[in-house]
Amino acid sequence: MSSPLIVVNFKTYLQGTGEGAVEIARACRDVGASSGLTIGVAPQLCDIYRVASQVDVPVYSQHVDGVGAGSFTGHAFARCVRDAGACGTLINHSERRLRLADIDASIQASKDVGLSTIVCTNNVATTAAAAALGPDYVAVEPPELIGSGIPVSKADPEVVTDSVAVVERIDPGVKVLCGAGISKGEDLKAAMELGSVGVLLASGIVKSKDPTAALRDLVSLIR
Ligand code: G3P
Q: Cα–Cα 20 to 30 A to 101, which of 54, 108, 185, 198?
């Protein structure tokens, strides 16, 4: 089993001026270092600079818009996201959906500045459409399982295996992640056994009373 990519999405669970985001990012860095795994974080846009400048951890934006420099108001500008310290971005999360043409524009804007792209999808058909746009990753997450505590790897393993199969046919260079309800070591292990190369997760870590312990459990069955 190859080493997974794990990305912890902070969503808008955290309040304040970023201290909470830095604290969880440090937990991800420490558990990643001790386990030899890559654990990235996706803080809120306003916390990217703080987290990236204080913690040596891969930082992802939760969203990027397909706009360039100019007269665009209220957008997440890929170049500034990168300059703030992000190495990549989520695109089209179920809680931040875009139209297909906008997903394409976001991927291109991100690629132009060297941001790794993770396009989220809600089923096998959208996985196929996203893969055709050539992102680095697609991350399939059935919306009904997001935040449920019921892992996709157990509740809907076919959406993962079918996504892996369809992506292999469309563009074998695109890697597949999965997410929704993932929190335990057995969930991550099952996700990898289904053919994904890692997971997106949120509530199981960010809402935990002890994120470090939750992260240790998550990686406990890998390697
Ligand atoms: O981006 C990951 C997310 O949508 C999954 O959320 O809380 O089910 O781990 P959660």
A: 198
Structural domain boundaries, residue 44: 5-218
- pLDDT of the residue at 80: 98
Catalytic hit among 19, 63, 93, 144:
93
**How do residues 104-127 score in pLDDT, each as one tens digit?**
999 999 999 999 999 999 999 999
In a domain, 223, yes or no: no
Q: What CATH number should be reported for the domain holding residue 12?
A: 3.20.20.70
- Report pLDDT for 44: 97
Residue 154 contacts residue 120 (beta carbons within 8 Å): no
Q: Which atom of ligand 1 is nearest to the CA of 148?
A: 8
* 205 CA: nearest ligand 1 atom: 9
Task: Give residue 114's identity as a one-letter amino acid code.
Answer: G
Query: How many structural domains comprise the chain?
Result: 1
Decide if 137 is inside a domain.
yes
The question of whether 75 is a catalytic residue gets the answer no
Number of separate helices (H) and strands (E) present in the chain = 10, 8
- Residue 193 annotated among the catalytic residues of the structure: no
* Ligand 1 pocket, Cβ-based, cut-off 6 angstroms: 9, 93, 141, 146-147, 179-182, 200-204
Q: Give the percent of the chain with pLDDT over 70.
A: 99
Decide if 48 contacts 21 (C-beta within 8 A). Answer: no
At residue 3, the pLDDT reads 83
Q: Is the pTM above the cut of 0.70?
A: yes
